[in-house]
Amino acid sequence: MAEAIGYNLAFECLQVHQKAFDLTEARATESISSLDLHNSQSRKLQQLIAAFTHAKKNKEDADFSKDDEMRETIQQIYKFAPEIFGHYESSKDSCDPGIYVFKLEDIDTFLTLLDSRVKDQVTEINQITMNINHEFEQRIQFTESAQKTLDMQTRHAESILGKTRS
Fold first, then answer.
1. In this predicted structure, what is the pLDDT of residue 149?
2. DSSP class of residue 65?
């Protein structure tokens, strides 16, 4: 009877470790997806910063009205950071070319707002990366603990077998 109880306890312990491992794996996967999204958003912000910097260097307005790629980039940035575009109102038609023209005198303001948002993104990316590392460390701990439980159960079973053979 003691062998059956020991076996059941070890089996139950391994099941708990498996559930904990699965939950940790799910959180790590979710964090990795979030990291991918934040990295994509950062690339969009950097792309717009580069375009504004180029326009500022050439001392000209940033006119993206005929640039489909930049218009798409601006629309995507607006979805996750609408505060950057004070003049970009949701009531305006996104096909209106006028909303994709930024005056030279406004570019510094936009660059400051974009830079601030990039810094926020970097902070969020660092936090997500720390979370991912923590989840992976927990996975390792659960795996090691499960291995120790399995080793103890194996030694226990070998002990019982040794006693029954003698």
1. 85
2. T
Residues paired with residue 63 on neighbouring β-strands, in sequence order: 101
Which contacts (CB < 8 Å, 24+ apart) does range 32-36 have? 32/132, 34/128, 35/125, 35/128, 35/129, 35/132
3-state secondary structure of 62: strand
**38 and 123 in contact (C-beta within 8 Å)?**
no
Tell me the CATH architecture of domain 2-165: Orthogonal Bundle (1.10)
pTM of the model: 0.74
User: Cβ–Cβ contacts within 10 Å for residue 34, how many?
Assistant: 16
Nearest to 114 by CA among 127, 99, 130, 102: 102
φ, ψ for residue 81 (rounded to 5)?
Answer: -145, 65
pLDDT tens across 41-68, in order? Answer: 999 999 999 999 999 999 999 999 899 9
Q: Which residue do the tokens 């500022």 mark?
A: 56
Domains of the chain by residue range? 2-165
**Residues sharing a CB contact under 8 Å with residue 67, sequence separation 6 or more, in sequence order:** 100
